[in-house]
Specification:
- With 447 residues, the protein is mainly alpha-helical.
- The chain has 17 helices and 8 strands.
- The protein has a two-stranded antiparallel ribbon with strand order 1-5. A two-stranded antiparallel ribbon has the order 2-3.
- Helix 5 (100-122) packs antiparallel against helix 6.
- The longest helix has 30 residues, at 43-72.
- It starts with a helix and ends in a 12-residue tail after the last helix.
């Protein structure tokens, strides 16, 4: 199966160059690049472009999605002299618009969105089996939704529809989540009409991604973020606890987090002790199995004097797979949503939280395996426990900045290099590459 993936990966590079040109500020003529018409003129072409969309998100995209908020929220500490990483860890109002993480996250998500839009726009121009067509529709909507969601977790306003004229409209981040939810529901409807064909699975996901379960998981996530608590609970309950959806890597397409942290023994950032949580407020049970799953003890100190560990879990090898979601995230969503409802359901929230704490059979092996919650049966106390467990369970999943704000963790001061702060920004500034080409770009957030 990997050989087939590599063939599609090779085919797709020239196609993606042509498709992404309209998303870039500067266009270069490439006589070897396929035109959009060529890329979408055949079954093999549209399938190859879809694989390329997945590849772009899973490699370049996952690097920015994980690395950027991890440094901002102290999940990781820098161990490099790269200026972009220094700027991220210093944070504050001085974080520049040209920071390569700020630009990389934004630009890569817009490119994914553009490819997803093109796949959807062209799916009816090619003769396809019903289950292949529905797979392409659902997949393009899923990846566009994930790209919008990643932007909405990190920027105050976002783009939900790309424009070839460099005049894309910005909307609030909450509108971004609502747009992502609508896309996911459309994808789910496509699958209900025609389940994914074996042809689609063989050509695109290779059996690594359960499309329907992934759509339901992201519906749960984004409905929680948008404040639709009942919908979040419903969708979280529909996700199978035994299904796995992963981005698979090989010797050509390396695990992007490992590639940044450990390749050739030179680390650019390393995980913080206690998952980056302040130990005075959040103490983890030493027997918590998630510590040993993600972290290997180290006496080392980062260049800014922060204690760091060695990374394990999904990031300790160049071909380790990375989950699109972790099953127990659904239980934490159910717990949090029940606590945030107008009339909190304490028993339901406690049950869901305990499902995480006492877990011993997680499909990925992320088993806390510790006693059930025994603290105060209040919404405030339980929310703190949910936050702590999200940091431990969903470590380096790209969700930490969204979580830090949503749980009202202490506001950053705006000063740079205050390494005791739990986060050093609320949102990222809009990158220069967008501001210089799109007149609709809003003013940067104050912090």
């Amino acid at each position: 199966m990997k050989n087939k993936y590599k063939i599609y990966s090779t085919l797709v590079f020239s196609m993606i160059v042509g498709l992404m040109a309209s998303s870039c500020e500067t266009d270069f003529n490439n006589p070897n690049a396929a035109t959009a018409d060529q890329a979408f003129s055949s079954r093999d072409g549209i399938l190859a472009v879809t694989v390329g969309m997945q590849q772009l998100y899973s490699t370049s995209g996952m690097r920015w999605i994980v690395e950027t908020p991890a440094i901002t929220t102290r999940e990781g500490a820098i161990t490099t002299t790269f200026q972009n990483m220094i700027e991220l860890e210093e944070g504050g109002t001085g974080l520049p618009n040209f920071n390569s993480n700020v630009q990389g996250l934004w630009a890569t998500m817009l490119r994914v969105m553009k490819i997803a839009e093109d796949v959807e726009a062209n799916v009816d121009n090619v003769t396809l089996a019903p289950g292949t067509r529905s797979g392409l529709l659902a997949y393009s909507k899923l990846f566009k939704a994930m790209a919008i969601g990643s932007l909405a977790q990190n920027y105050e306003q976002v783009i939900i529809q790309t424009s070839n004229n460099n005049d894309a409209v910005f909307v609030s981040r909450n509108e971004g989540f609502l747009a992502a939810i609508a896309l996911l529901n459309e994808g789910k409807a496509a699958l209900a009409a025609n389940s994914v064909s074996q042809e689609f699975t063989n050509a695109v996901t290779l059996g690594n991604i359960d499309v329907l379960n992934t759509i339901n998981a992201y519906l749960a996530r984004y409905n929680l973020f948008a404040g639709n608590f009942d919908a979040a609970i419903t969708n979280a309950n529909s996700v199978s606890t035994t299904s796995m959806s992963v981005f698979a890597y090989d010797n050509i397409n390396l695990n992007p987090v490992y590639n940044r942290m450990l390749l050739n023994g030179i680390a650019n950032f390393r995980p913080r002790d206690n998952f980056g949580l302040p130990t005075a407020e959040f103490s983890l049970d030493p027997a918590d199995g998630r510590i040993a799953f993600y972290l290997s003890t180290s006496p080392d100190i980062s260049q800014n004097g922060l204690p760091v560990e060695n990374i394990l879990g999904f990031f300790d090898g160049s071909t380790e797979s990375i989950p699109l979601y972790i099953p127990d995230e659904m239980q934490l969503i159910i717990a949090e949503a029940n606590l945030r409802k107008a009339s909190p359901d304490i028993p339901a929230a406690t049950t869901a939280l305990n499902n995480v704490l006492t877990d011993t059979d997680d499909v990925f092996g992320i088993n806390a395996d510790i006693p059930a919650y025994s603290g105060p049966a209040t919404a405030d106390a339980l929310l703190l426990e949910v936050y702590k467990n999200r940091r431990a369970e969903l470590f380096l999943s790209g969700l930490s900045l969204e979580d830090s704000r949503r749980f009202n963790r202490p506001q950053p001061s705006g000063n740079g290099s205050v390494f005791t702060e739990e986060r050093n920004r609320n949102f990222y500034p809009y990158p220069d590459l967008e501001r210089n080409s799109n007149p609709n770009t809003p003013a940067d957030p104050s912090l």
